[in-house]
Amino acid sequence: MLPLPLLLLSSAHAAWGSLPLVDFDRMGKVGLAGAFSGLDLFQNDSFTFDSSTSTLLTRTSNGSLSPLASTNSGGRILAGCTLDNSFYLAGSFSSIGSTSASNIAAYTTSSNEFSALGSNGPNGEIDAVFCDVKNKKVWVGGSFTSPGAAVAVWDTSSNSWSKPPFNGLTGAEGRVLSITSNSSGSSLFFAGSFITSFQGNGTVLNGTNNPNVPFSPGASPFSSSLVPIPLQGAQIVGSPSSTDAQFSNVTNILCPSGSDGPGNTWFAGDGNQAVITVRDFSFLQASGVRLGNTFQSNHGTTGFSVTTIPDNTVQTLRYLDPTTQQNNTCSTTCPLSTDSSVLYQDFLFDSPLSITGIAVTLSEWTGDGPGLHILQLLSSGAFASAIDTNNAQSCFAPNPSNTTRTGDWEVKVAQTNISGTTQSVLVSDVAVGTSASASPSLTWQPYVSASGNYDVNMLVPGCTNFQDCAARTTVQVTIFPGNELDPTVINVDQTNTEDASVPIYNGPILPTTPDFVTTITMTLAANAAGSGSNGQYEIVADRIELVLTSANATASSNSSSSTSGSSSGSNEGFGFFEWPLSSTSSVDATSTLANSTETSTDQAAIGLFNGIGGNGTISSENAAIASVAHHSSGTIFLAGNFTTSSNSNNIVSFKDGSVSALPENGLDGSVTTLALDGDNLFVGGSFMDTSSASTNGLLKGVALFNVQSQKWSALGAGVNGKVSSLAVSSGQLFVAGNFTQLFTSSSEDAGFDAPGFAVWNISNSVWINSGGFVVGSMTFVTNETSPQYIAGNVITSESFGASGMVMVQNSGSDVPTVTPLGVQLDGSVTSTSLSSTRRRSVVPRTSWISHVRLSHLFSKRQTSSSSLAVLPDPLSATAPAVLAGAFWTNSSSNNEVAIIGGNFSFLPSGASFGSVQAASLGIYDQTSATITALQGNQINGTVRSLLVDGDTLYVGGQFTISGLNVNGFAIYDLMKQQWDVSGVQALQPSSGSSVVVRSITTSTSKTNTVVVAGTFAQAGSLTCHAICSLDTSSNQWNSLGSGINGEVSSVTYAGNNQETLIAGGSIALSDGTEANVAQLSFSNMTWAAVGSGSDIPGPVTALEVNNANASSIFAAGKTSDNTTFLSFFDGQNWTTLASTLQKDTVISQLAMVPLQDTHAGNNIIESDRMLMISGSLDDSSFGNASTALFDGASFVPYFVSSTISGTAGSVSSLFHSFATFSFTQQHFLATGVVILISIAISAGVVFLLALIGILWTLFARRDRDDKAKQFDAAAEDDDSIHHRPSSLLEHINAATRGTIIGASPFAQQNSEKEEERLEGDGMEPEYTHDGDNYVRAETPSAYGGAMGTEEASRPAHARYSFDGAGEGELALTAGAEVEILDDRDHAWWYARDVRTGQEGVVPAAYLY
């Protein structure tokens, strides 16, 4: 996701006052680097944050944040939605801003005002809000009793509260946590902790089990509805068996004809564990076993296990504890109750299995040995076989399943891949072309024990085993599920080569009665597929399986838990309730509801109630449904805090009347929020992994479940705390909660700071910069984006969120456009305080006392070279901090990128999950919002300075590089992508110190030379304290003159060709003269103090020369008592300017910046520029700031920033792509004025031509030779139009200036005298030089002849190289990017080189 520029807009809650208009675009691309995570422009009415309150903020589509208001102390904002022009926010509070409001309020966006909603609103906390746009109503849910129980409705038309049409929801905690709509928007889904009750159909016995099966507390409605598989034809062996003949026949326990006792019970041999093996030599679909203990004297089983055949696997079984009614699992030793009131217990597999038998091992017993009264193998629900002999009568069944047939059918037997196992089916041959009505038919009539929702499958044997593939075709199947239920017709393809189970129906099936039986009929399809074999089709009939998914058609559950507590004749639901918005009925959901009000989705609540275990379990486990999401397929996802009897933890799905576990049995912690985006279900809460730990702990609070693939996946590696709210919009997932970091790998050391709010790019599957900055425990985020709202307990917030860097450019308004770094940089998170420490005042400007010599106020330092003060401590560089930046244009791709350095780490864009992070240095592409690492070994330490010269990167700081001989300084070849330090000797420190390189610069007057400065003693074997030059052609170090002593913090240059180097720091000349600002003349390589060193109060931390003018220098630093100073040098003396900066202030950079407007000029700073002071500024008048602007008389706080902990941040540097730039402002005339001027000039030209004609006539009688000479001269002059336009342009400019502004065309003759006069007055000549100090030819672009403001400049590239040797011309290299400023002449265009900032005319044909 590309970072979008963020344009600050003035509003009622965020006023920036009248900030100076810095012309950032004049400097090219501009970056602002520092130790911050949030950035903002200084606000006159800054917002005060208190983390004991809950603050509501707006978020633009670009990500910038603005606070609106806060609640009372202890208040909470938990939910909200937008309806028309109002945003409704709710939670638990008594006021918002200055408005008294009880738990809910409305914010009107047009007026920026909050208002209360009536006087009879909810009397308790509100957890959920839903805006019904169509009906203009706001539904709220929570924990309150009035106007309705847990639910209330605000009618925006009548401005009144009412209870819901269903009265409310009660039971359990009586709390609604979520209100959402179904996928079509026709119904509302309510979720929380409450109980609903619907009238039953009167068929439930004891509130639990199937009435056609003897009741036992060891069975559930689900398990008691499973028809036992008839085992009359199976091989049953019990060994060892008792010698007592009355108890030795194991087949007696398959379907005992009487009570526990002789002839109905089996004993194992005394003192031995026993194994009962059941084998049926065909495949069976089984869901579990039913075991009934014997209570005969001295016999009984207490422990057992079940092994399935043929896979020989000991199965994990699920069962209901008959005493506690809790759901449990067991495997190698399962307990069997010895309570004689428990007739039997049902033990279920995790899912139905296709097996040929089981082996039950009785491993523990009481008395003399183990024994059983009942042993049954439970089917998946019900069944019927086409082979009549396989349809034996099941236990407890009044009759067996059955079939009826028409036409000729015969048995066909095939071997299977299981030794000794056969497969028998019925087949019928049908002539090709036979109609469906005339074809043979077969009807299955399965015995169905109990009503419920079933998946019905037809087993179609593969044609390979039966060797009849050529004859197979398509059949038509018709299912009649029950009285008053519509039949289902489906075609089934029988040409499968391997055995297949084909779904043919899903839905309710009514039980078998004397009056009704479910039927499944098969005939030849109307349009049978295939050509048959020898003119015949063969249709095949095998088995029908009915897989129970929920017990009872009106009380669905696929669990093995009891509905304890439910009364006979009613069905109770938990945590979920659907209400159709179109319903006009008035019912009472706080009591038992009629079945006519029950919707199909209410079955989910009944399934949850049964699955969780009824009222007792719900209360003891504080169960709740916190969030609901409805997928377009019809699947409803319900999540919260619960565990079902099928070991589904905290999240389940509901579809086709059945509650089902998600893969891996859900999640190992509670879920608080869901957000659905297509097939992506995002889940947030307090969990670490799935219940089966399938992701190795990578989910951590936020996870993705794909509905189609049914798979869980991580978002990076999650977050380090609870996620409270999720929202999806515009391809992004917004995550709010109580966390501080995002993880990018399984290591908790690899991640990004994100205190409370984060954004995930869904398509790219990466965490991205959220755009804004907030520190707090966030509780809520909305889906809307125009604007978006977030809320929580905020410690601090800024408009822009960026880890250490932003890009800044001009905008069409009074404030700049800020584009945050589009990637995340990593760093440690410090502990946060409970309130913001930022101090801001409403005073936007601080007056400075200018031109006052205040050096006598500070103690003068009498020092020698051996006793220099150390430099003050630099700005804090706690990671992530960007301390330096530079721009580089790739000469092969012409793509300009920013190179940043500092103390940070990052995961390179596109790197795979868990990749090793890069550190301290990165290449950032603003176009694609990607960051890449430099190839080769990584820097170990902190980068503090960068210089790009061509394709070479020079890196300085305090670091080493593994495997390379470098110390604080290194060189990198950007094109070859490798370190290039061969032959460059490492810098060496003084004893007891370390190397720190703070400045790397070049001078236009010294080719092939890089100046390196900081803290060091020598370069290799060469002694050069604090500053040294590197010859880049030979990679040899050289001393600069006689050198200096001390430490250098900053280097800049003066002079038209940068022939004078100015260095600041804690410096003494080689003769011991104190000179914290010193200059070196390259012409004679001699050092000298700038002014009197004693006039500078202390070591200098930042230095700036005003537009290369050696008579206008600014220096900032610290005195010996830690007082911050700013001094100005006027060419003769230093003046320390008074300020109200506090001792905590650290100034890291001074930079003169151009303005779009002007200020009142003075003898310190010209009107078209200001001094930007960067660092960590603490002022007694305006509080904290990170940058401020100084106009020579007033101090204007400009940028403020915050760290990830909420404390004040800092700005280390402003860097730009133009090496030089002009402070001269271009003033364009309006198009209309230009047209009038053009008309006037044209009229003058016409007059001139007329005059020439007259003169020509007067001289026409001259000698023909003279005329010939005049003709030749005219021809020569006419040919001059093909030559360079410099001279012509210069005269046109002069004439144009005279016409437009009244300037004399001969004013240039006195320019040198005027310059001397200005310099004599201590003033710099204005508007005469570009930033590179060469004289420009003034062109029409400066005075209205170029594109006006309504005709913006446009980019172009050089098709050919152009030497630009003429005056006013711009030299170009082929491929260079330029900006066209004036293209009105067809031959020559006025342009600016975007890399250097230089301007001039170029041939139009050379550009494209």
Describe the structure.
Among the domains are: 157 residues, Jelly Rolls, CATH 2.60.120.260; 167 residues, Jelly Rolls (Sandwich); 176 residues, no CATH class; 102 residues, no CATH class; 176 residues, SH3 Domains (SH3 type barrels, Roll). Helices cover 6% and strands 42% of the residues. Strands 18, 19, 20, 21, 22, 25, 26 and 27 form an eight-stranded antiparallel sheet that branches. Strands 3, 58, 61, 85, 86, 87 and 88 form a seven-stranded antiparallel sheet that branches. A hairpin with a 7-residue loop joins strand 67 and strand 68. The longest helix has 28 residues.
Summarize the topology.
Layout: E1 6-7, E2 30-35, E3 38-41, E4 55-59, E5 65-70, E6 76-83, E7 86-92, E8 95-96, E9 99-100, E10 104-108, E11 113-116, E12 125-132, E13 137-143, E14 151-155, E15 160-162, E16 170-181, E17 187-199, E18 235-239, E19 266-267, E20 274-293, E21 301-309, E22 313-314, E23 317-320, E24 327-330, E25 334-335, E26 345-365, E27 371-379, E28 381-385, E29 402-406, E30 410-415, E31 422-431, E32 441-445, E33 452-460, H1 463-466, E34 474-480, E35 488-493, E36 500-509, E37 519-524, E38 536-541, E39 543-551, E40 570-580, E41 592-593, H2 602-612, H3 614-620, E42 624-630, E43 636-643, E44 649-655, E45 658-661, E46 670-677, E47 680-686, E48 702-706, E49 711-714, E50 722-729, E51 732-738, E52 741-743, E53 751-753, E54 757-761, E55 766-768, E56 773-781, E57 788-798, E58 800-801, E59 805-809, E60 817-820, E61 846-847, E62 881-889, E63 896-906, E64 918-925, E65 930-933, E66 939-949, E67 952-961, E68 969-973, E69 978-979, E70 987-988, E71 996-1003, E72 1006-1015, E73 1018-1019, E74 1022-1023, E75 1027-1031, E76 1036-1038, E77 1044-1054, ...
Parallel strand pairs: 17-41
Antiparallel strand pairs: 1-60, 2-59, 2-89, 3-58, 3-88, 4-5, 4-57, 6-7, 7-10, 8-9, 10-11, 12-13, 13-14, 14-15, 16-17, 17-40, 18-20, 19-27, 20-26, 20-27, 21-22, 21-25, 21-26, 23-24, 28-39, 29-32, 30-31, 31-38, 32-37, 33-36, 33-39, 34-35, 34-37, 42-43, 43-44, 44-45, 46-47, 47-48, 48-49, 50-51, ...
